[in-house]
From TrEMBL:
Domain ABC transmembrane type-1: 96-288
Superkingdom assignment: Bacteria
Cellular component, GO, one term: plasma membrane
An individual GO BP term: transmembrane transport
Organism, as annotated: Cupriavidus yeoncheonensis
UniProt membrane topology term: Multi-pass membrane protein
Keyword Calcium carried by entry: no
PANTHER family found in the cross-reference section: INNER MEMBRANE ABC TRANSPORTER PERMEASE PROTEIN YCJP, MALTOSE TRANSPORT SYSTEM PERMEASE-RELATED
Annotated coiled-coil segments of the chain: none
Protein name, per record: Inner membrane ABC transporter permease protein YcjP
Keyword entries, A-Z: Cell membrane, Membrane, Transmembrane, Transmembrane helix, Transport
Localization of this protein: Cell membrane
Length: 302
């Protein structure tokens, strides 16, 4: 004859195995499981473009154009033909070097101008300092198309047409205002007492700035570097207009110009070019993600 177990009797007393999911911590376990599922879905969503580029890079042309094939898998053996077209039939390596050269020079110019300017505005008290900071930031909001004609006149007067130096001259006009505003917010987060203590120990103001303030602001400086490099790599309009020789192209112009011919798209080579450029940037973002987020959010904290 079956016996009933009274309600409210603990599982251990009633002879049942203790509940694993419906114990006292079932809410915490459910929250962790939900967080894990959400993060896993987000990770798959973020990694899918890289997977798509990787698969497309090594797919055969017939595998790509056959709509009956599964686009997410290799229906035919992988091939290196797309990479051969990219590296042998185009000047892709030269475009990479051009982009790297312009990026490094623009980063250096931006740091030389934006870091001291941001520090000066952060330490400039009063209404005029705030107004000047807002005016500098507003210049970043001006659409690039409005500045196209004056920049063209400057480039023509200086004789820099079809030269990478034209991009080195123009790009800081977009990076310096925003990076100055960014560094200003970061320098405001550094207490003045630290500088004053360093100056009491014998350092000059410039020495305290270099040895105390700059190391504490490394997250902001790293943000400036990443932002500037990203802008140089993706800018298209000015690079297309000021540069006419294929040997002087950057990646953002050379790849679509030579791998899109009329209505013919070299999808495998296009995805290979994008993959080679995007992977280092993605690795850089992930290695310094905490500092990068801090650089953009420090100005929002008081």
């Amino acid at each position: 004859m079956a016996t009933s177990i009274p309600n409210g009797v603990p599982d251990s007393v009633a002879g049942r195995a203790p509940g694993r999911w419906f114990g006292p911590n079932w809410r915490a376990r459910g929250a962790r499981m939900l967080a894990f599922v959400t993060l896993a879905a987000f990770a798959v969503f973020c990694a899918f473009p890289f997977y798509w580029m990787l698969v497309t890079t090594f797919k055969d042309v017939h595998d790509l154009i056959n709509t009956a094939n599964n686009p997410f898998l290799f229906n035919q053996p992988p091939t290196l033909e797309n990479l051969r077209v990219l590296f042998h039939d185009t000047l892709y390596l030269r475009w990479l070097l051009n982009t790297l050269l312009v990026g490094v020079l623009v980063v250096l110019i931006t740091l030389v101008l934006a870091v001291p300017a941001g520090y000066s505005l952060a330490r400039l008290s009063g209404r005029h300092g705030r107004q000047l900071a807002i005016a500098i930031f507003l210049t970043y909001l001006i659409p690039p198309t409005i500045l196209f004609i004056p920049f063209s006149r400057i480039i023509g007067t200086l004789g820099l047409q079809d030269s990478l130096w034209s991009l080195v001259l123009v790009y800081p006009g977009f990076t310096v205002p925003f990076c100055t505003w960014l560094m200003m917010g970061f320098f405001k987060a550094v207490p003045r007492d630290i500088e004053e203590a360093a100056m009491m120990d014998g350092l000059s103001r410039f020495g305290a700035f270099l040895k105390v303030v700059v190391p504490l602001s490394s997250a902001g400086i790293l943000t400036v570097v990443i932002f500037t490099l990203t802008l140089v790599m993706q800018e298209f309009v000015y690079a297309l207009t000021f540069i006419t020789s294929s040997s002087q192209y950057t990646v953002s112009v050379g790849v679509p110009t030579f791998l899109v011919r009329g209505d013919v798209y070299f999808w495998g080579s296009l995805m290979g070019a994008c993959l080679i450029v995007s992977v280092p940037v993605a690795v850089l973002y992930n290695l310094f993600l905490d500092r990068f987020v801090a650089g953009f959010t420090v100005g929002a904290l008081k």
